[in-house]
Design brief:
The structure is a single chain. The protein is 36% helix and 23% strand. It has 613 residues and is α/β, with parallel strands linked by helices. The strands form six sheets. A ten-stranded mixed beta sheet has the order 3-2-1-4-7-12-11-8-9-10, with helices on both faces. Helix 5 links the parallel strand 8 and strand 9. Helix 1 packs across helix 5 and helix 15 packs parallel to helix 18.
């Protein structure tokens, strides 16, 4: 029974902030941070069976904010960027732990009287744990641990039990009693076991006593527990029983710290179930989107600690650029720039650069940006050999050539109620979770009707066109609150790989391509609260809708979702009127597409030169 007393990396799911104190007390007693142990916390939100998973979104956001506040000043605790929202959370928890675990990871699961912890059945979890595991019930109150009982029979759990007991003893100053229990038919050689005990005593002074007993092991252990305050025991490997009768006697007690341990080797019991069984692909998509919404919808408040974002940025050696697309925005651009620059450049260096991406404004927009200390480029002048097209999408595509950052954020420059959250909100998930490729902002959009403001009347093209088509043909994206919003951020490597539509269809095309190339779980959205901006007239929205339809139809034809029997019409007839009559005006609206930027030779050469500099 050899052990090297390796420091443990504790992994613990937490479902509520008011549980954190007693859960973390046990985790801290085992982690040995001074010996390079660590604690990783996973936020877990349980949703009752039968309720939509997305109903847990607000609770998951609130839990994340509380856990951030609790562990902000504790460098030994790492709050994982993933969150789990589920009615049956064990498969997701299992996958996340398995991804992060190493040979010294210990998963801690609290024991609950009903044997479920936030929907996790510990019997099920013990069947095939992703790493070494302990189910525990803590001591209530402030009872000090002076003696730890470690019953062993020389089985597969002995080394793990010895290591856990040593970590606990070193953190609490307790002494360990090593107890060898064998029944009447047990053929274990007692002298061999004594030699193993002697090795432990000579290597680890925390072992102070040893006891050899025979007969009924449960009765002997319960008798010994009268003078002990903690016990480390192995889970049962008996067929059909994940927890031994002894463990079932000890776990309900609140006067003893009980740790029921299991090595990562699986029990030969029933197989681990996956996600809840869903009969049809449509039902599975609905469930998946509902779960995505709960686990990938953030609130900007969760990333309001700018100092933490700056620290994470530096650790990852990231550079971040903010591009501000503009066309005649002199009325608002100065306030947008000064607000963001003051908070996210001057006060805290979250952004490495802010660049105005101008579309040849004639109202002094560029001069205002320059006066605010922000450089500008005219997008038509970038990559001149490729020509210059009109449109916001063209400006964004070409801005990839002008901006230097690993992460790139874009926000519109007509925002009246500008706040730093419009930027740190969409950057936060990318900085916190390296797996996320793209983040879209959403918000309430008030609209002026006469002399009154309606709280949520904006986003008319979204609700009347985009969302119905998405729900019909791209249900995977139906969880996006505002797929056409103009505030979003992503990784340069992701933006380099997708084509950009030059006009109104840039947001739609971007979302469809990112889904196709990276999958839904690489995409996220953030609640930015409220956005006040200039509302467009109905005729402008009609032209926008015509452009978006082109993008949807083209993409659906390319991905074989529909078959086009002829060319799409690119000319729109708008109904106009004057004082005496109605008439039709024909306007060409052609959504052209630029290739992925990484395929542009001049861009590739410039990037290679920058990276080699």
């Amino acid at each position: 029974m050899e052990t090297h007393a390796e420091p443990l990396n504790i992994f613990i799911p937490i479902t509520a902030a008011d549980q954190a104190q007693w859960l973390m007390a046990t985790a801290a007693a085992l982690s040995s941070p001074n010996a390079h142990g660590s604690i990783s916390v996973l936020g877990l939100t349980h949703v009752d069976e039968g309720q939509p998973i997305s109903s847990g979104t607000r609770a998951a956001q609130h839990l994340n904010e509380q856990l951030q506040a609790l562990f902000a000043d504790n460098p030994a605790v790492s709050l994982l960027p993933q969150r789990v929202v589920a009615s049956q959370p064990w498969p997701a928890v299992n996958d996340i732990v398995r991804e992060h675990a190493d040979e010294n990871t210990l998963l801690l699961l609290p024991w609950n009287k009903g044997e479920l912890y936030a929907g996790i059945d510990v019997h099920l979890a013990l069947q095939a744990p992703p790493c070494d595991m302990a189910v525990f019930s803590p001591i209530r109150g402030r009872k000090r641990i002076r003696r730890i009982l470690l019953p062993v029979r020389g089985g597969s759990f002995a080394a793990l039990g010895a290591n856990i007991s040593l970590q606990l003893a070193r953190q609490t100053g307790a002494r360990i009693t090593l107890m060898h229990v064998h029944g009447a038919k047990d053929t274990t050689n007692s002298s061999d076991m004594r030699r193993e005990f002697a090795q432990l005593y000579s290597s680890h002074p925390e072992f102070s006593d040893h006891v050899h007993v025979s007969g009924d092991p449960i009765r002997a252990i319960m008798r010994e527990m009268r003078t002990h305050q903690a016990i480390v025991i192995g889970a049962s490997a008996a067929p059909g029983a994940a927890i031994s009768p002894l463990a079932l006697k000890m776990l309900p007690r609140d006067d003893v710290l009980t740790l029921v341990i299991r090595t990562r080797a699986p029990f030969a019991l029933s197989p681990l179930p996956a996600e809840p069984a869903l009969a049809a692909p449509r039902a599975f998509t609905s469930y998946r989107v509902d779960k995505w919404f709960a686990e990938h919808t953030f609130h900007s408040r969760e990333f309001a600690d700018i100092g933490k974002l700056v620290d994470l940025k530096r650790r990852q050696n990231l550079t971040i650029s903010l591009g501000l697309p503009a066309l005649n925005e002199a009325e608002t651009v100065g306030n947008v720039i000064s607000t963001i620059k003051s908070a996210l450049v001057d006060d805290a260096p979250l952004l490495d650069e802010i660049v105005l991406i101008d579309s040849n404004s004639s109202d002094g927009t560029r001069e205002i940006a320059e006066a605010c200390g922000v450089p500008w480029v005219i997008h038509q002048d970038l990559l001149p050999d490729l020509g210059g097209r009109r449109g916001k999408g063209e400006a964004l595509w070409k801005s990839l050539h002008a901006l230097r950052g690993d992460l790139i954020a874009w926000i519109d420059t007509d925002i009246v109620n500008i706040h730093p959250r419009f930027v740190y909100g969409i950057l936060g998930p990318l900085i916190v979770n390296p797996k996320i490729q793209f983040v879209k902002g959403f918000y309430q959009r008030p609209i002026r009707v006469g002399d009154r403001i309606q709280a949520a009347g904006g986003g008319r093209v979204t609700e009347l066109l985009a969302r119905p088509i998405i729900n019909m043909f791209y249900p995977e994206l139906s969880g996006f609150a505002q797929p056409l919003s103009g505030e979003y951020a992503g990784r340069r490597e992701a933006f380099e790989r997708i084509p950009f539509y030059s006009g109104y269809g840039v947001e739609t095309g971007m979302l469809l391509e990112l889904l196709n190339q990276f999958g839904l779980d690489a995409l996220s959205q953030v609640d930015l609260e409220e956005r006040v901006h200039r509302n467009q007239e109905l005729q402008s929205l009609s032209k926008m809708s015509f452009a978006l339809l082109q993008v949807f139809m083209e993409h659906m034809a390319e991905t074989k979702r529909i078959q086009l029997l002829g060319d799409m019409e690119r000319t729109m007839k708008l109904l106009r009127s004057d004082d005496s009559a109605f008439y039709l005006e024909e306007i060409d609206i052609v959504e052209q597409r630029r290739p992925p930027m990484r395929d542009v030779a001049e861009y590739a050469a410039a990037r290679a030169a920058r990276l080699g500099a």
